[in-house]
């Protein structure tokens, strides 16, 4: 697990400007940053690479930092009471995608502020938006029904349980069972906290300020199949078992990270250390 920087900074390297063409049609001007590729940008905005190339008159897949690309995307105007989480949910996108598209690593919003909604097309009509919102609410209800039937402490889907189990597999294979359940507990503690995203998926894939919170997400080990014991541990954590005792972070005891070691210790199992 990677440490969270004490202060979430805004990365000035990635700047987004907005051009409003009409009430229903808008575009985002995205400034390419280091390590960007057309493929990554196409995945973020859910737009084919060929479309991006055609829109920007690109003759090859080569792009460079500082280059500006126009990508079709809906623009949202922040209203009173809005939060990043609510905006992401209402529009059916992940919090991580919303943050990345807008280089928005803190939670501060201002009424009237413009935000790019990556993957939400600018031609979306009011009726389609309403349908999307209804679909999202139905999905939330389905999540609640599934978790309630199992007395879970948070709503979740089968895919999210598998994702949690894969994280546990990558982080704690060979460690005591309590350590595995405790890792699930840390993720759930974050979901329940107002300081973190509010779904298992968004917590695990959270990259505030460009800092990965979980090493397996960064190195790709999160994509390996979950072990049967990790699936069992994930299930126990979802039912409320928390050997981490309220921890928000965990790390291997070989870590030399002074920031992590300075935090209040809640539990230790094998090589795994849990802190608040």
UniProtKB/TrEMBL annotation:
<feature type="domain" description="LysM">
    <location>
        <begin position="28"/>
        <end position="71"/>
    </location>
</feature>
<dbReference type="GO" id="GO:0016787">
    <property type="term" value="F:hydrolase activity"/>
</dbReference>
<dbReference type="InterPro" id="IPR042047">
    <property type="entry name" value="SleB_dom1"/>
</dbReference>
<dbReference type="InterPro" id="IPR011105">
    <property type="entry name" value="Cell_wall_hydrolase_SleB"/>
</dbReference>
<dbReference type="GO" id="GO:0008932">
    <property type="term" value="F:lytic endotransglycosylase activity"/>
</dbReference>
<feature type="signal peptide">
    <location>
        <begin position="1"/>
        <end position="27"/>
    </location>
</feature>
<dbReference type="InterPro" id="IPR018392">
    <property type="entry name" value="LysM"/>
</dbReference>
<feature type="domain" description="LysM">
    <location>
        <begin position="74"/>
        <end position="117"/>
    </location>
</feature>
<dbReference type="InterPro" id="IPR036779">
    <property type="entry name" value="LysM_dom_sf"/>
</dbReference>
<keyword id="KW-0732">Signal</keyword>
<protein>
    <submittedName>
        <fullName>LysM domain-containing protein</fullName>
    </submittedName>
</protein>
<dbReference type="Pfam" id="PF01476">
    <property type="entry name" value="LysM"/>
</dbReference>
<dbReference type="Pfam" id="PF07486">
    <property type="entry name" value="Hydrolase_2"/>
</dbReference>
């Amino acid at each position: 697990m990677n440490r969270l920087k004490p202060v979430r900074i805004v990365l000035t390297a990635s700047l987004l400007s907005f051009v409003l063409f009409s009430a229903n049609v808008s575009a985002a001007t995205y400034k390419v940053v280091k390590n960007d590729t057309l493929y990554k940008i196409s995945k973020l905005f859910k737009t084919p690479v060929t479309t991006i190339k055609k829109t920007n008159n690109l003759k090859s897949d080569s792009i460079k930092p500082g280059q500006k690309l126009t990508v079709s995307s809906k623009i949202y105007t922040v209203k009173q009471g809005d939060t990043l989480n609510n905006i992401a949910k209402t529009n059916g996108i992940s919090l991580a995608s919303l943050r990345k598209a807008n280089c928005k690593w803190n939670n501060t919003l201002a009424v009237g502020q413009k935000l790019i909604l990556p993957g939400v097309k600018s031609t979306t009509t009011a009726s389609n938006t309403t349908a999307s919102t209804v679909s999202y609410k139905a999905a939330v209800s389905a999540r609640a029904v599934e978790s309630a039937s199992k007395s879970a402490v948070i709503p979740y889907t089968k895919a999210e349980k598998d994702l949690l189990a894969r994280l546990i597999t990558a982080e704690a294979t060979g460690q005591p069972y309590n350590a595995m359940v405790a890792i699930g507990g840390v993720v759930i503690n974050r979901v329940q906290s107002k300081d973190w995203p509010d779904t298992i998926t968004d917590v695990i894939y959270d990259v505030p300020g460009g800092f990965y919170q979980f090493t397996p997400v960064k190195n790709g080990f999160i994509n390996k199949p979950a072990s049967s014991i990790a699936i069992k541990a994930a299930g126990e954590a979802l039912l409320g078992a928390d050997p981490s005792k309220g921890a928000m972070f965990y790390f291997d005891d070989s870590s030399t990270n002074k920031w992590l070691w300075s935090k209040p210790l809640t539990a230790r199992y094998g090589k795994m250390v849990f802190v608040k």
